[in-house]
Design a protein that fits this description.
The chain is an alpha+beta fold. Helix content is 28%, strand content 18%. The longest helix is centred in the first third of the chain and has 9 residues, at 19-27. The protein is elongated and about 70 Å long.
Length: 120
């Protein structure tokens, strides 16, 4: 299917004078670009129509059953992983730990970049 889309470029004065014509063109699938001093500032285009009915339910409801294993408790090692108790300890390197909340710049911490700038 080939869909030809036409685009109109109009200045504000012409858009005010012929707005109903341009809205009819938009309903046909065309776009209208509104310009101010020949520079585009806005675009009129059609919006998707509202859904007529309710949202359909998924097809999986008819053939899906929750297995009884779903309701069994999780293993202790998995629960410990959620709370952070069983995280492996990484070997410490020579650099200090980085805290996520500490703001940094591309050149290091903010304090270090302030010290390097002359004239501040």
């Amino acid at each position: 299917m080939v869909k030809n889309m036409t685009m109109f470029k109009v200045n504000i004065h012409e858009a005010k004078a012929r707005l109903s014509e341009f809205l009819e063109a938009v309903e046909r699938g065309e776009r209208v670009v509104i310009c101010k001093r020949n520079r585009p500032v806005a675009e009129l285009r059609a919006i998707a129509p509202a859904r007529a009915g309710g949202r359909p339910l998924g097809d999986a409801l008819s053939g899906f059953e929750v297995p009884p294993e779903f309701f069994e408790p999780l293993p202790d090692d998995l629960l410990d992983g959620f709370s952070g108790q069983s995280l492996p300890v990484a070997p410490r390197s020579g650099r200090r730990d980085v805290v996520a909340e500490q703001p940094t710049t591309p050149y290091g911490t903010r304090e270090a970049s302030r010290k390097r700038r002359p004239g501040r």
